[in-house]
Amino acid sequence: xxxxxVAAGLWPASQLAAQESLSFxxxxxxxxxxxxxxxxxxxxxxxxxxxxxxxxxxxxxxxLAARVLAGSGFSVGFVHYLDRTGDRRVSYAxxxxxxxxxxxxxxxxxxxxxxxxxxxxxxxxxxxVSLGAALGLDVAAADPxxxxxxxxxxxxxxxxxxxxxxLPPTLVLHGERDPIVGVEHARAIETLLKRLGTPHEIxxxxxxxxxxxxxxxxxxxxRVASFLGRHLGAKGAAVxxxxxxxx
Length: 247
Fold this sequence. Notes:
This protein has one domain (about 5-235): Alpha/Beta hydrolase fold, catalytic domain (Rossmann fold). About 35% of the residues lie in helices and about 25% in strands. The protein is built from seven helices and eight strands. Helix 3 (about 95-115) packs across helix 4. The protein is globular and about 40 Å long. The termini are close together.
């Protein structure tokens, strides 16, 4: 994850948010949600962090990403939405049938997040990566409680342009050399956002693929913190350039 790969060098360990394992119920089952609380005045803004199709394969990267976001003033719920279907990774053979279940679980996750102690229910956002970005688009379109959306190299799935009637302010980040989710998806999302009249930003990285490295990591992390700061009202601290750690 673009945030996670740089996070270890941002702040001393003592200043990074502690991790707490929590859960909520969705579809009659337990969904794990790792919690990273931001320091500072409460109630404050919060986001759900949505992993990609690899599930927790790169879990430590996502956890570092969550700590960066928490350090920038946003409490984070890292939702293991694949718990809904009992998977460790996405089964592409069942993607179509499982997608609505994951979407429902993330919607339940928004309710869980909005009800957390110390969270301002009027300042809730979603940060999705790849498949998590597609799920974020679908959930944000249907839930006005979601006030900001960040989509890291996510696909615009078939049927979405006709189904989606509204979206919150959205930041789209994508590599032009992405071999998994082609950059045409980012441009299609941009077209949709323009048609809907949604405030949005898009950043395409010419030399990046499905995941960001080097300077693009720093740039994307800084853009996310700034974007969420504007739309959710936290400090949105920029990532210090002299503390970047490239992969």
